[in-house]
Amino acid sequence: MAYEVLARKWRPQLFTDVVGQDHVTQTLKNAIETDRVAHAYLFVGPRGTGKTSTARILAKALNCQKGPTPVPCGVCDSCREIMAGNCLDVLEFDAASNTGVDYIRDLRDTVSYAPARGPFKIYIIDEVHMLSPGAFNALLKTLEEPPRHVKFVFATTEPQKVPATIISRCQRFDLRRISARDIVQRLAEIAQAEQVDIDADALLAIARGAEGGLRDAESALDQLIAFRGKKIQESDVLSVFGLVARRTLESLAEAVLKGEALQALRIVAELDRAGKDIQRLVQELIEHFRNILICSYAGENITGLDITETQLDTLYAQAKLTDPARILRIVEVLTETDGRLRYTLSKRTLFEMALVRCSRAAVVVTLEQILEQLQSLQRGGPGPAMMVTEAKASFAPAAASQPPARAPIRDEPAKAVAASRAAPTVDDSDPIVKLSRNWHEIVEKVGHVASLAKTYLLDAKPLRLVGNHVTIGFDPEFAASKDKINQIPRGPRAVQRAISDTLQREVTVDFMVLDAKSTLPGDFKMQSVTESPSTEADAPPAAPLPPEPPKTGAAKNRQEWVNNPLVRKTLEMFNGGIVDIRE
Ligand SMILES: [Zn+2]
Question: N or C: at which end does the chain have fewer Cβ atoms within 10 angstroms?
Answer without folding.
Answer: N
